[in-house]
């Protein structure tokens, strides 16, 4: 259990580093798309179809976090930094183009997604630590620890599913 707490904290801190960098490092996205065009792309799709697209994308991110188990947490760390950076960029752009209150309202439904992301990172890091310990000490990985990692990952998946539908049915109404 202590390993999971440390892995979750590590997941959050690595994400937070990316987030802080994203808020402070300005990238001009106007050449790619402006805010209104991006929103209209989302609002033109059927809500269920959009929810499933978001779910698929978020599950890819979650599975990518899980690959950290076999690559010593490196992919998990990269994924967390990238996702933190991207959200930092979006919040920074939102505050620049909208009010702080409107930006918070738009981002708040994503809190379920963030918790799922951090839990997925936790599994990636904790699994990597368990694998390293196995190779160093040759002690078998305990079945109850694997079961616990599986439960945490399933909670992350559940939160990710809820987040995909929340983003469409709540966030899109706010925009």
Automatic annotation (TrEMBL):
The chain crosses the membrane at residues 7-25, 59-82, 103-126, 146-170. It comes from the Bacteria. Keywords: Membrane, Transmembrane, Transmembrane helix. This is Putative membrane protein SpoIIM required for sporulation. It comes from Pontibacter mucosus.
């Amino acid at each position: 259990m202590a390993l999971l707490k440390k892995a979750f904290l590590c997941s959050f801190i690595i994400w937070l580093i990316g987030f802080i960098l994203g808020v402070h490092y300005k990238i001009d996205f106007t050449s790619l798309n402006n805010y209104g065009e991006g929103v209209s792309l989302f609002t033109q799709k059927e809500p269920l179809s959009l929810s499933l697209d978001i779910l698929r994308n978020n599950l890819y991110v979650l599975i990518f976090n899980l690959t950290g188990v076999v690559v010593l947490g490196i992919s998990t760390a990269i994924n967390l930094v990238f996702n933190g950076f991207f959200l930092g960029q979006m919040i920074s752009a939102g505050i620049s183009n909208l009010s702080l209150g409107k930006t918070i309202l738009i981002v708040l439904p994503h809190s379920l997604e963030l918790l799922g992301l951090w839990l997925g990172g936790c599994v990636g890091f904790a699994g990597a630590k368990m694998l390293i310990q196995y190779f160093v000490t040759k002690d078998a990985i305990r079945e109850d620890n694997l079961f616990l990692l599986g439960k945490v990952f399933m909670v992350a998946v559940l939160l990710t599913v809820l987040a995909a539908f929340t983003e469409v049915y709540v966030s899109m109404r706010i925009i």
